[in-house]
Amino acid sequence: MPPPFERHVFVCTNRRPDGHPKGCCATKGGEEVRAAFKEELDKRGLKRSMRANAAGCVDTCSFGVSVVVYPEGTWYGGVKVEDVPTIVEEHLVQGRPVERLLMPFNKKAER
Ligand code: FES
Hints:
It comes from Corallococcus exiguus. This is (2Fe-2S) ferredoxin domain-containing protein. This protein has 3 helices and 4 strands, in the order E-H-E-E-E-H-H. It is α+β, with helices and mostly antiparallel strands. Helix 1 links the parallel strand 1 (7-12) and strand 2 (50-55). FE2/S2 (inorganic) cluster binds at residues 12, 14, 24-25, 57-61, 64, 66.
């Protein structure tokens, strides 16, 4: 399926210099999380309808690794490689956001 994709995942892979006060998602595993999304989508035969892209800083650094899923505009924080299969299965495939990984402001916005 050509764009627009059914779901589009943006994973922050921003890297800041060591010691930067804001930190960055790259040192928390952003690049590995993005690779895991790509691999999981490929493994499930979804890569033509859903896409995972690297993103720069999305300004939620303290919650990193930051992941945003569109078209819903769902924001996940503290995402680890081991969370990726759950997000793909529960959210991307079944359409149910993974509550335990939602960023705090996202939870408030939905209630
Ligand atoms: S560095 Fe990832 S959200 Fe800012």
